[in-house]
Amino acid sequence: MSHGSTLGSICGPVTGGSGADGIRHEAFLYQGDAGFLSATRDFVLAGLAVDEAVLVAVTQPRIRQLRAALGRAAQRVSFLDMAELGRNPARVIPAWQDFLDLGVERGRLVRGIGEPTWLARSGPERRESMLHEALLNEAFAAPPAWRLRCLYDVGQIGPALVDEIWRTHPAVVEGGLGRISSRYRPPGSAVASPGPDPLAEALPDLGVPRVEFAFGPRDLGHVRAEVIRVALAWGLGAERTGEFELAVHEVATNSVHHGGGHGAVRLWTDDACLICEVRDGGRLYDRLAGRRRPDLSLGGGRGLWLVNQLCDLVQLRSTRVGTTVRMYMYV
């Protein structure tokens, strides 16, 4: 089934559906090692040929493969390990912003390559990766102009994820041809998106929690104590328990100050991770909350940023009836 109109061969620029003053955000569907190099090597060399700053954020095995293919040209490319940077996808937009700001400071155009998901990703991580892809279009809708190519190995993703790729990218390269996506809607579009708002979707049911309780302004100490108790009993370790305690405290404090004065906490554990959910009746209107580096000269706005730095994964959803934040810490 076709999802858009053909732009042409990948030899030319894929420009359809994205503005000239902000991000040119495209997906590249490939398969296997040869497909990966087809999606990356010439794209990187084309940027270097016109003295663009180039950042590649993929997993370490892919970094080694591309370095070898680029040869000496790899010395002019910046690389980041996406398995480390993007473990929590909410950390990725600030990394692109930092690189873009550096390019502007040095008077250079910027292009990047990112691989948001791969086979080893958990279901929640894949879900947040696609939310990240949608929010990229909002975070970089304004100047300066730059180009980002997002890679997806079709041998490692299912049909549902492919559909989301077409909804979150203005242009998609598939089978060697670039296409404008008919399913994509730019930020602020008057035309309704063909899919649900990912920030308003319900999070999956995790079953009966190990711990569940309500809290109010006088109960923040109890929230912290319960998190510490469960985390240490589960075997998280003192340092990581302290980080998790701080993250949960930040979210619970936000609930007291901005979420109606009270909320509810639920905790789950399994062999792989510890999960804490904080839910309240408030609504979050800043869709990029926690994904912008905070201004240290201002007194607030750092809570969700800190939570994203401390936790291995964070899921945030907000609707008219309330806001839910799930925080994950892995073994």
Automatic annotation (TrEMBL):
Q: Which residues form the Histidine kinase/HSP90-like ATPase domain?
A: 217-328
Start and end residues of each MEDS domain: 24-170
Q: Which protein is depicted? A: Serine/threonine kinase anti-sigma factor
Record has Transmembrane as a keyword? no
Keywords from the UniProt entry: Kinase, Serine/threonine-protein kinase, Transferase
**What GO MF annotations does this protein's record show?**
protein serine/threonine kinase activity
Species of origin: Frankia casuarinae (strain DSM 45818 / CECT 9043 / HFP020203 / CcI3)
